[in-house]
Amino acid sequence: MSYFTEASSVETVNGRMGADTDPRLKQVMSSLVQHLHAFIKDVGLTQEEWEYGIGFLTRTGQMCSGERQEFILLSDTLGVSMLVDAINNRRPAGATENTVFGPFHVDDAPIRAMGDNISLDGKGESCLFEGRVLDLDGKPIAGATVDVWSDNADGFYDVQQPGIQPKWNNRGRFITGADGTYAFRGIKPVSYPIPDDGPVGQMLGHLGRHPYRPAHMHYLVTAPGYQKLVTHTFVGGDTYLTSDAVFGVKNTLVAPFDRVEGGQTLWHSPFDFTLVPL
Ligand code: BEZ
Ligand code: FE
Predict the structure, then answer these.
(1) What share of the chain is helix, strand, coil (3-state, %, to 5)?
(2) How far apart are CA 268 and CA 259, in angstroms?
(3) 27-77 pLDDT, tens per residue?
(4) Looking only at Cα atoms, what is the longest distance across the chain?
(5) Given this model, what pLDDT does residue 1 score?
(6) Is 74 near ligand 1, meaning CB less than 6 Å away?
(7) Please, what are the domains in the chain?
(8) pTM exceeding the 0.90 threshold for the entire prediction
(9) Distance, CA 141 to ligand 2 centroid (Å)?
(10) Stretch 146-157: mean pLDDT, rounded?
(11) Which atom of ligand 1 is nearest to the CA of 104?
(12) Nearest CA residue ID for atom 9, ligand 1
């Protein structure tokens, strides 16, 4: 037993844990205390900085509601979400990579017929998205659910603009048949800022960072017997590909968006998804 000193801070705090503490909780909390104290010692945190930090976290919590999760935005913009995602989704070569889920998915989007148009507001440049859901041997997966969502041409998801955009605008679920193919029409997505009217937006401003995400289409691909795939395809050439506010871009997820001459559909974006068995 020792009193708290600067030198013994980690051992003193961690030494208070009860003998019956859950082993995993003990591991996680001991490491957290160790790294947190090391950080405070490393920067020599001042009292004013500590107060600012408490105020920042308080404002972050106060910004949270049923519709807004400022703590997840903080995690996203500090690269924490993508790091947790990477550690928990290590996949074999050839499998489609995961990326951040984001706050704008809505459960139980309408199940649509293959080829249907998910863009209900008539805005934006029409794009045909199509490809196959495959296993690691390249065989088609039947009965896979391809759940898709994107922003509209103004850079907002339908849930950000209730009463302005039609419900379920730019969303839908498509179920693959025997050949594993999916196809739907939507719009070529546009880049947009993550919600930046709260403390996280202020933090980005102080750090000289912009809040933009490069244009992307979200996918949640599930099939019985396979790992869930949470991913996006990104529009190649987007200005923000190398400075995504939430670090979600991966090389393998940059998809072709080919211009189509003639006809009503202006763009074609082919992309196959490869799932890993459970
Ligand atoms: C998104 O892509 O929808 C998103 C991801 C992380 C934070 C905000 C938005
Ligand atoms: Fe998004």
Answers:
(1) 30, 20, 50
(2) 6
(3) 999 999 999 999 999 999 999 999 999 999 999 999 999 889 999 999 999
(4) 79
(5) 60
(6) no
(7) 9-68 (no CATH), 76-274 (2.60.130.10)
(8) yes
(9) 26
(10) 97
(11) 3
(12) 102
* pLDDT of 66: 87
> CB under 8 Å to 212, separation ≥6 — which residues?
191, 192, 193, 194, 239, 240, 243, 244, 245
Q: Which secondary structure element, helix H or strand E, spans residue 35, and what is its range?
A: helix 23-43
Q: Tokens representing 121?
A: 């507001």
249 lines ligand 1 (CB under 6 A): no
Ligand 1 site, residue 214, Cβ cutoff 6 A: no
Residue 100 Cβ inside 6 Å of ligand 1? The answer reads: yes
CA 258 / ligand 2 centre spacing (Å): 21
Question: Over 70: is that where the pLDDT of 183 sits?
Answer: yes
| Band (138; pLDDT cuts 50, 70, 90) | very high
